[in-house]
Amino acid sequence: MDTEIGNLLFCLLFYNNIDTIPLGAEMRHSPDSECWNKETVVALRREMSPYLQPSLWRSVRQLINTLIPYILLWILAYRLLQYSYWLALPFIILAGGFVIRLFIFFHDCGHGSFFRSKKANDLCGIILGIPTFTPYYYWRNSHARHHATSGNLDKRGEGDVWMMTVAEYAPTSFWKRSLSRFYRNPFVMFLLGPLLILLITHRIPLRKATAQERLSVYGTDLGIILISLAIIELTGLKAFLLIQLPSLYIGLAAGIWLFYVQHQYEGVYWAREKEWSFTLASLQGASFYKLPAVLKWFSGNIGFHHVHHLNPRIPNYFLPDCFSRIDPLKTVKPIGLIAGLKGLRYRLWDEDAGKLVGFRNIRNRPVEHEKEQS
Question: Sign of the C-alpha dihedral, residues 233, 236, 238, 243?
Fold first, then answer.
């Protein structure tokens, strides 16, 4: 626990302190270099510092151009539902895209990057937690731990996708191997996963949750119930279920995919605690997911995930400019839509090879291990 707190403090210091060491040619190297010393890291932070201050107008404009269309799409879908569900379905799907975008704003609030005021971020995050069905403080604290430990093999299990190493998988029990296969199955992750989040993981706090986190979960649940009852009173239960649940489901499924592809791809970075580097974990352990313009808009530029991990205090609308104007950030190889799909075959981390592999790559290893033990 002390180490975890230390990592969190390190990240807080990294995000906020900007040193005055001048820029130099030593910055111009690949992100997989071993040369990321204190001076080069501080220089990179200095280059990123102009993008740390949120713009009130741009944040408010994003809320307006997202909340209003989302509400209008909901109303339009409700009107069309009276004639045919198939007429309403395209607008329900589109509403799911706006759910993703609202979640990005919620996400920025959690990082303190949507408004300059902490109170404004927290208030906006709490409110946006209702349409996204996500408890603000409960999610924010878990996500902070993810940022503090991303790519660290000794710190897995906090807000990330569960992953075993080949060495862990081979000798473990049949049931745990089966659980790993079940969990990493795309059908389970992307089709059942949204239901699990919607109905259980964001509705019931873990035992280790703090009082603030528990209040966040129960307060969000209460807000969801009250708003839902009001909508049901206006539209009826059937219309509510046929519109709200599918749009939420689509938004959650897309969100799970974005999170997955941002940390499960060829060449991703993982290391043990003693070799782990926050900078390399950001530049190599978080992807540059290159999306078409329309998907980039709906996903709030989260495809520039390596930039976001390097400094999550940068608002979503400044991520493209930050990327385009700072050369070291451009050295990260982009992942397109097709290349991103290849990440579905990755299941385990092979420490010997230093890469993600599929279950088929280690099909015979458990048997060989058992023979060695006997």
Answer: negative
Give the integer Cα–Cα distance in Å for 353 and 220. 44
Element (H, E) at 114: none
Q: Judge residue 238's burial from the number of C-beta atoms within 10 Å of its C-beta, 0-12 exposed, 13-18 middle, 19 or more buried.
A: exposed
Over the chain (374 residues), what is each successive 10-residue block's mean pLDDT? 37 33 29 58 88 96 98 97 96 97 97 97 97 96 91 85 90 91 91 92 92 96 97 96 96 94 92 91 92 96 95 96 92 90 90 89 54 42
Identify whether the C-beta of residue 282 lies closer than 8 Å to the C-beta of residue 322.
no
Question: Residue 305 forms beta bridges with which residues?
Answer: none
Instruction: Tell me the C-alpha distance between 235 and 239, whole Å.
Output: 6
Domain spans in the chain, listed from the N-terminal domain onward? 2-158+186-333
* Contact present, 305 and 262 (Cβ < 8 Å): yes
Phi, psi of 312 (to 5 degrees): -70, 0
Burial (CB < 10 A; 0-12, 13-18, 19+), residue 230, is exposed
> How is residue 51 written in tokens?
């993008």
